[in-house]
Amino acid sequence: MATKSRKSPTARSRHYDLILLGATGFVGQLTASALAEAAPAGFRIALAGRNQVKLDVVAQRCAERGANVDTMIVDVERPSTVDAMAASAKVVVTTVGPYTHYGMEVVRACAQAGTDYADLTGEPLFVRESILNFAETARRTGARIVHSSGFDSVPSDLLVHLLHAQARRDDAGELTETTMVVRRVRGGFSGGTAASGLAHGRAMAADRVALRNALDPYTHSDRRTEEPALGRQNDGRLVALRHVDEGLRGWAGGFFMGPHNSRVVRRSNTLTDWSYGRRFKYCEVMTVPVGPFSLIPALIMAGGLSMMPLATLVKFVPEWFTDALLPKSGSGPSVKSRAKGHFTFETYTRTTRGVRYRATFAMAGDPGYAATAVIFSQAGLALALDTDRLSPFGGVLTPAVAMGDALIPRLRAVGARVEVECLSESPPVRADNADQREGAG
């Protein structure tokens, strides 16, 4: 588990409260706008990137929203500029991907400087390397390194965090079989997402050990030998929804981000000394419309994820072909398309005492872009402002462990529906509540 560490006076008195690296990219611009609208008066922001002209354009848009921001030239291929950035901020948030190529230098600088860090990565191997290389440094300096702080993997991680907290309040036991069900999702994807996927596939193709690590359900664990032996945990399985919860019907197949999100959630369990439970099993699935042929698309989704090792075949695909076929990096859905987007996730669990719960995370806006910009900006603000509600531990953490109790109310305040409910007719009664009722009688 991460060890307790105090922020140094220097870290608390940095020139900037938050620096956004990658502010001129597609998601970076959306995040800059979200920060400008949400940051309180006097909050000190700097926009960082390689192109001063583009930075000035984004800064002007932020000024039109009432924010006063500075700009800073930072090139991740020039370590001195990255070190200077990390030393001048309480928090650095970065949208510069693929993170496998451009993220590790920023993690290093923040871990060494004791600076909190957040990103949007969906690349499991990058997170693994970050843990192996910089978790101990971050524990020592008190830096909270928080990967996957957007659509990947905040909803997944926070829903299990909520379920665990409610089960604990109800004295309902530990979590066991837990499944996140994608009920509704509408949205596009950008060149940045495509580039990250290609980078991850090429990383697996380049190294047989990397492929084995990518397929390990506990690849984000730095306590691998202590993890519970729960047998196969298949991210791409076909699921009859009645087996998830007795109130559900139809079929579901593996969710395409499930292989990454599930590893983030399992790391949350590990970081808290398996507080969710030693029998906690987690997977993510996506529903298909109920009908006589609904089994077919569910089978296709499940089959696609079960063949994830075939992603290594990307090494045989020429780069000119993928460049022509996929969206360009820095591009993304239109304003109109982003406004039409939305998503609803429901996570179901059953505890060791047989109590059933459902947690829901629903949000308007294209999940990968409009919603991610809001989630990511609120994560950055939570790290910078809500210090009394953050984890006191440094290290390579997860959204739930680092800032779950701070981020949930922030997301509710900006329109997200984040809630948990008991589905059992008679939830267990805590002993102290029972004693109170007996005394009242």
UniProtKB/TrEMBL annotation:
<feature type="domain" description="Saccharopine dehydrogenase NADP binding">
    <location>
        <begin position="19"/>
        <end position="145"/>
    </location>
</feature>
<dbReference type="GO" id="GO:0005886">
    <property type="term" value="C:plasma membrane"/>
</dbReference>
<dbReference type="InterPro" id="IPR036291">
    <property type="entry name" value="NAD(P)-bd_dom_sf"/>
</dbReference>
<dbReference type="InterPro" id="IPR051276">
    <property type="entry name" value="Saccharopine_DH-like_oxidrdct"/>
</dbReference>
<dbReference type="InterPro" id="IPR005097">
    <property type="entry name" value="Sacchrp_dh_NADP-bd"/>
</dbReference>
<dbReference type="GO" id="GO:0009247">
    <property type="term" value="P:glycolipid biosynthetic process"/>
</dbReference>
<dbReference type="Pfam" id="PF03435">
    <property type="entry name" value="Sacchrp_dh_NADP"/>
</dbReference>
<protein>
    <recommendedName>
        <fullName>Saccharopine dehydrogenase NADP binding domain-containing protein</fullName>
    </recommendedName>
</protein>
